[in-house]
Design goal:
Pfam families: DEAD (PF00270), Helicase_C (PF00271), RecG_dom3_C (PF19833), RecG_wedge (PF17191). By secondary structure, the chain is of the alpha/beta class. The chain is built from 31 helices and 21 strands. Among the domains are: 61-165, OB fold (Dihydrolipoamide Acetyltransferase, E2P), CATH 2.40.50; 270-469, Rossmann fold, CATH 3.40.50; 479-702, Rossmann fold, CATH 3.40.50.300. The structure holds adenosine-5'-diphosphate and magnesium ion.
Length: 788
């Protein structure tokens, strides 16, 4: 939000006049208000009214006393026969025993510590009683039943019918705070309201058939019929979607208002020379995206573009062409990678693609060329200084490194473009850090191989324009994927190792991925693959959740025992596994697996090890050796998940595959099939058939469609996770809205928000919406917005 707007909202008395802003202690009393705040973090009337029922139930069939079944929830229409209140034995308190009858049979009602009950429940009184049927002292009873007493003149039968079918809301409750207690607080709050400012502008409500806010609260908390709370939910979802989309629309608008140096294409420069030496033709998809980017770069406001494309779809070439365009225009470009391994790999492949164009100032360099500076945490001081100088002086047109390194230390002569690879958490803060390094905001291109469903792109990434590289350049080979059920079919596991031997014999290479490093460090940090970024290279999760991606169910983290040998586990019976669930053993580790494979199943092959805790120069040496064919089998963690490109590798074996997320497996699979030979991906698991874990693996094996898989992945997380809210441990602002299911609604809200912001940027005509937007922005709940 712009400052002007913050001030404006601050000046308005709206927040104070708003009945929803009233403190709960003024409404339900101090004690209850304290409990509501402590247990459920509800402070205002608005908080309470937006604490929606999780579900609704009726009181249960109206039942004859003669046909009551144990454990049923029932409602009975009956007459009080007798009442007796007595003290509890040996304890403080009292119990009131009531016997009711409907003429056919009797039933006991028991109330604890409600001695006043005997005044209203006098013999002959007709009432409706509901609760669960239990048995005490061989008599059927309802303990602490809900009740409604009928007046003399009421039509008992009709009243009974209404009472039994009334929808009772069930609220997310807490200890000391029952759903019923919450319900009665909500009743009190609702009864006080007679008018509410509506954050949804009237034209929006009219166009989309949405009921007003007060009516919506009434219908979600006290629905008369089921279709009423459905109407209410639809409307209240808009309350979540619209402010969010307004924030994003304002951000897009602010970005358009920012000045940037236009970097139009200059003919006859580096870009043309590069195109001339490119050994292949751009696909039409690449062509289209490159054209779009060229238009963006030529504009006088910063490009904000997200480029999605499957692994191997050729994003790097597109990014490099953008960088060269900027260099031709006199600026510099920086490429940020999430890990040092990837920064080094980018550096190598960009040097390759550029050839003499990257060797300005060297004997064999192109006189029109530039220099490419690599900056990593592990560089020697001298090399580093030279690279920093190249960046600061402008001799390096292209600078490559990890985020942390670049944000900290580098100065640029004229930074024109920032390219971010495989990093979803490149948020506003990082952008600001880089902005501080240039006079005007640089253009921004974010690349991701993780397909992001449209709806998520519209929310978490809503302030970026999106491009997709849908087609793969020729030469990509098919990948087949199989689940290897090591528990029920041990010989399949043996076959897995044979397949690796066969591929190696045919001149190819293989990856074996394990969930854990296992070098003796405590398990907790064992999986952390983070490098300078302090995070993990988790290309799997659009929201950056589950940093190590492993063990979505947390199963991998338990225990410290050395992992069993793969083939021994293979002999565990299904029963053993069932008994041992959910955490039968620690996940297989890179170190142990590499040792066992070296000694046994793959003895004689050249086996290398790669994980996040190797020294950077070791990592680089291993990757270089693997890329050069000096290593047959690379046993690794997910450190190889993103971007690693060794076309000669044809087999990907993932051990304990059930401990990885769906998108992550898809990423790992993308490491093979990058050359001319077909790829093979084997997902080895101990998870028994029919378990959700096995179904997940089945889904990965069944499709190569990354968008479909990321949908499946996201469906398994809570919505809050999608937007990163749960990472901060805070309440998500999304309660009803389902980012994946409510695509239509999100699209409509986005459109409405764009129109509103277009015609009235500060929403002066819609103070209630402006207040909702301000509340969203100022709350920590907007944190996820900065994770794009
Ligand atoms: P991504 O970064 O999207 O995973 P890359 O840019 O690394 O993909 O491309 C994967 C491989 O395909 C690289 O070896 C690259 O040189 C090659 N490549 C890219 N574009 C084309 C194309 N149009 N035709 C043939 N090969 C291509
Ligand atoms: Mg790449």
């Amino acid at each position: 939000m712009s400052e002007a707007m913050a001030q404006q909202v601050g000046q308005r008395p709206v927040a104070n006049a708003d009945p929803l802003a009233e403190r709960l202690k003024e409404v339900v009393g101090g004690r209850t208000a304290t409990t509501l705040e402590r247990k459920l973090d509800l402070r205002t009337v608005g908080d309470l009214l937006r604490h929606y029922p999780r579900r609704y139930a009726t009181r249960g069939e109206l039942t004859d006393l003669a046909s009551l079944a144990l454990d049923d929830y029932v409602t009975v229409l009956a007459e009080v026969e007798s009442v007796r209140t007595r003290p509890l034995k040996g304890r403080r308190g009292s119990v009131t025993d009531v016997v009711v009858t409907d003429g056919s049979a009797d039933l006991s009602l028991t109330f604890f510590n409600q001695p006043w009950r005997d005044r209203e429940l006098y013999p002959g009184r007709l009432g409706l009683f509901s609760g669960r049927v239990t048995v005490f002292n061989k008599r059927r009873q309802l303990a602490q039943p809900e009740l409604e007493l009928l007046k003399e003149d009421q039509d008992a039968a009709a009243e009974a019918e209404r009472y039994a079918n009334e929808l009772i809301p069930f609220y997310p409750a807490a200890k000391e705070l029952s759903s019923r207690k919450i319900q009665s607080c909500v009743q009190v709050a609702l009864d006080r309201l007679d008018d509410l400012p509506d954050p949804l502008p009237r034209p929006v409500r009219e166009r989309h058939g949405l009921i007003g806010l007060l009516e919506a609260f009434e219908k979600i908390h006290r629905p008369g019929r089921r279709d009423e709370y459905r109407l209410a939910r639809k409307r209240l979802k808009w309350d979540e979607a619209l402010p969010l989309q307004v924030v994003l629309a304002q951000r897009r608008r602010d970005a358009l208002a920012l000045p940037a140096v236009p970097r139009p294409v200059r003919r006859g420069g580096l870009l043309d020379r590069f195109d001339a030496r490119l050994p292949f033709r751009l696909t039409s998809g690449q062509r289209a995206v490159c054209d779009q980017i060229e238009r963006d770069l030529a504009a006088a406001h910063p490009m904000q573009r997200l480029l999605q494309g499957e692994v191997g779809s050729g994003k790097t070439v597109v990014a490099l062409r953008a960088m060269l365009t900027v260099v031709d225009a006199g600026g510099q470009a920086v490429l940020l990678a999430p890990t040092e391994v990837l920064a080094q790999q980018h550096h190598r492949s960009i040097l390759d693609l550029l050839g003499p164009l990257a060797r300005a100032g060297q004997l064999d360099g192109d006189p029109e060329g530039t220099r490419v500076a690599l900056l990593t945490g592990s560089q020697g001081a001298k090399e580093r200084r030279a690279n920093l100088l190249d960046a600061a002086g402008g001799a390096a047109g292209i600078v490559i490194g990890t985020h942390a390194v670049i944000e900290d230390t580098v100065q640029f002569a004229d930074l024109g473009l920032v390219v971010v690879d495989e990093q979803h958490r490149f948020g506003v803060e990082q952008r600001d850090a880089l902005r501080a390094k240039s006079a005007k905001p640089p253009h921004l291109l974010v690349m991701t191989a993780t397909p992001i469903p449209r709806t998520v792109a519209m929310t978490a990434f809503g302030d970026l324009e999106t491009s997709v590289l849908a087609e793969l350049p020729g030469g990509r080979s098919p990948i087949s994927t199989f689940v290897v059920p090591a528990a029920d079919k041990p010989h399949y596991l043996a076959r897995t190792w044979d397949r690796i031997r066969e591929e190696v014999a045919a001149g190819h290479q293989a990856y074996v991925v394990c969930p854990r490093i296992g070098d003796g460090e405590p398990t907790g940090s064992d999986e952390a693959e983070g490098e300078e970024t302090g995070g993990a290279p988790d290309g799997a999760a659009p929201d950056g959740a589950a940093p190590d991606g492993a063990a979505p169910d947390g199963a991998a983290r338990a225990g410290g025992d050395p992992a069993d040998e793969p083939e021994r586990q293979a002999q565990l019976s299904l029963d053993d596994l069932a008994k041992a669930a959910p955490a039968p053993r620690p996940a297989l580790s890179v170190v142990d697996t590499a040792r066992r494979l070296t000694e046994r199943q793959l003895a004689g092959l050249r086996i290398g090890v790669l994980h996040g805790r190797l020294a950077p120069e070791e990592k680089d040496a291993v990757m270089t050796a693997f890329a050069a064919g000096g290593i047959d089998v690379l046993v690794a963690t997910t450190v190889i998940e993103v971007g690693v490109n060794v076309p000669n590798a044809t087999v990907m074996v993932v051990l304990d595959a059930d401990r990885f997320g769906v998108s992550q497996l898809h990423q790992l699979r993308g490491r093979v099939g990058r050359g001319t030979a077909p790829g093979l991906c084997l997902l080895v698991t101990q998870a028994p058939e029919e378990t959700p874990a096995r179904q997940r693996l089945g889904a990965v094996a069944a499709t190569l469609d990354g968008f479909e898989l990321s949908r499946i992945d996201l469906e398994q997380r809570r919505e809050g996770d999608v937007l990163g809210a749960s990472q901060s441990g805070r309440r998500s602002s999304l309660k009803l809205l389902r980012v994946l299911d409510d695509e239509e609604l999100l699209r409509a809200a986005r459109e409405a928000a764009s129109e509103l912001v277009e015609s009235d940027p500060l929403l002066t005509g819609e103070p209630a919406l402006a207040a909702a937007v301000a509340a969203l922005v100022s709350s920590d709940q907007a944190g996820f917005l900065d994770k794009s």
